[in-house]
Amino acid sequence: MTLNTLSTLLLVIATARITSAGISKRVTCPTGQTTANEACCVLFPILDDIQENLFDGGECGEEVHESLRLTFHDAIGFSPTKGGGGADGSIFYFADIETAFPANNGIDEIVHTQTSFINNHTTITAGDFIQFAGAVGVTNCPGAPRLEFLLGRPKATAASPPWLGTRASRHSYKHLGTVPRGQFLTRGGSGLASFVTGVPFDSTPGIFDTQFFIETQLRGIVFPGNGSNVGEAEAPLHGEMRLLSDSSLARDSRTACAWQSMAVGQANLQAKFKAAMSKMATIGNDRSKMVDCSDVIPVPKPVVGTPHLPAGKTMNDIEQACASAAFPSLTADPGPATSVPPVPPS
């Protein structure tokens, strides 16, 4: 090897080491945690606080469900022509106006719950807090993806106009009409964004799994006490509820096969949910002006269990809707017919 060749090789190695060091460089925050960007250090005290005091030490309970729901209701209030800043915290800053919208029915409870936390953590805006709490909360549910979180939403300056959100009672064609604005459709695993306090959409509300897509496809039974004030259809199991919109989406020819593909596709569900949340969480914001703080979000635990039919059900209870492929063959849990308990409060 010539001297010139050796010098060139050593230069390449040194450059590679410098580049690698630059890529992996971390900042140690005053709290002791590390992150790729110093601006993200403000999030660690908030993370510790909400995990302990909002999510009851890291439980996948009702506050997680409702915090996830709130990320949607704040972000969806956006229109280039009608106004609305999207994911900007306007549902907090103008709570008296926005929580009164029919599409935001019941959202006032989680807004009220998060208010003290938002007021205690003024290092970030309410828009950032709402999306951060949703991203952190869902990590308490085994099987969830680790969501992206970008920091830097400006403070909302005006309330969202009414009628920009979707109501639970609407049918699938109306939901599909809203997709170009938000560019997402996936609800998410295990019906985590519950619309009625304590009433789950599937039999595993504490796990981010595919059961929601299986159980929505089951033939429904009308149970005594199931009302219609929020647009729920008949449910497949005692203690469970089903929205008319979900039932319709699962059976609409335009979406039935995509819905069915989620029934046993945990990785597919995680990827689509993460992509949908990434788009939703930044509606109305300029991503190029935001700081990527995704490494602050905890890593969720792996999914618990495998896709299955609830006890007491058979494949004959599946209402086939996809015209191009049969529903995946599943076995039922042993035991008597499943009865779903309420989601416990955090």
Automatic annotation (TrEMBL):
GO biological process annotations for this chain's record? cellular response to oxidative stress; hydrogen peroxide catabolic process; response to reactive oxygen species
Q: Which molecular-function annotations from GO does this UniProt entry contain? A: heme binding; metal ion binding; peroxidase activity
Q: Which residues does the UniProt record annotate as the domain Fungal ligninase C-terminal?
A: 269-345
Query: What does UniProt list as catalytic?
Result: 73 (proton acceptor)
The UniProt annotation places Ca(2+) 1 binding at: 74, 86, 88, 90
Enzyme Commission designation: 1.11.1.-
Q: Looking at the keywords, is Secreted present?
A: yes
State the disulfide connectivity: 29-41, 40-293, 60-141, 257-322
Q: Does the keyword Calcium apply?
A: yes
The residues that hold Ca(2+) 2 are: 202, 204, 209
Signal sequence region = 1-21
| UniProt site (Transition state stabilizer) | 69
Which segments constitute the Plant heme peroxidase family profile domain?
Answer: 49-161
Cofactor: how and how many bound: Binds 2 calcium ions per subunit.
Q: Which cofactor does it need?
A: Ca(2+)
InterPro entries in the record, alphabetically? Ccp1-like, Haem_peroxidase, Haem_peroxidase_sf, Ligninase, Ligninase_C, Peroxidases_AS
Q: Which UniProt keywords apply?
A: Calcium, Disulfide bond, Glycoprotein, Heme, Hydrogen peroxide, Iron, Metal-binding, Oxidoreductase, Peroxidase, Secreted, Signal
Q: One Pfam family of this protein, by short name?
A: peroxidase
Sequence similarity:
Belongs to the peroxidase family. Ligninase subfamily.
According to UniProt, the name of this protein is: Peroxidase
Q: Which organism is it from?
A: Mycena venus
What lineage does UniProt assign to this protein's organism? Eukaryota, Fungi, Dikarya, Basidiomycota, Agaricomycotina
